[in-house]
Amino acid sequence: MARGWESKSVEEQQAEAQPETRQNKPRQTPEQLELQRRREAILLSRKRVLEQLQAARNMRHREMLQAALADLDARLSRLSARLLALRNV
């Protein structure tokens, strides 16, 4: 019973803390939100490619995955630069 009460207390504390953190963050423009979504998608793809690269044994497959990783890194770099530019405006 005490454990359930403690859980409610923690939940209440988290619920109270959330509005404060939302107020402190500046609102993002739709363009920033879209770029952030794309960045997250690229990061997920990059993680998947890295996992495949660790498991790959065929040299041609490894080369293809390394090229894909380089492409994702380049896209991530460009996207991060755009996000940074939008935040500084």
Task: Write structural notes for this entry.
The structure is a single chain. The protein is mainly alpha-helical and 89 residues long. It has a domain of 60 residues. It contains three helices and no strands. The mean pLDDT is 85.
* Fraction of helical residues: over 70%
Order of helices and strands: HHH
Which strand-content bin applies to the residues? under 5%
Tally of individual helices: 3
- What sort of overall outline do the alpha carbons produce when their principal axes are compared? flat
Low-confidence stretches: none
The count of DSSP E runs of length 2 or more, i.e. the number of strands, is 0
What is the radius of gyration?
A: 20 Å
The averaged pLDDT comes out at 85
Distance between the termini: 53 Å
Q: Main sheet, how many strands, which sense, barrel?
A: none
**Strand pairing plus helix content: what structural class?**
mainly alpha
What is this structure's SSE topology?
Layout: H1 2-24, H2 30-55, H3 59-88
Helix pairs in contact: 2-3
Task: Briefly say what this structure is.
By secondary structure, the protein is an all-alpha fold. It is built from 3 helices and no strands. Helix 2 runs antiparallel to helix 3.
What would the keywords be for this entry?
single chain; 89 residues; mainly alpha; 3 helices; 89% helix
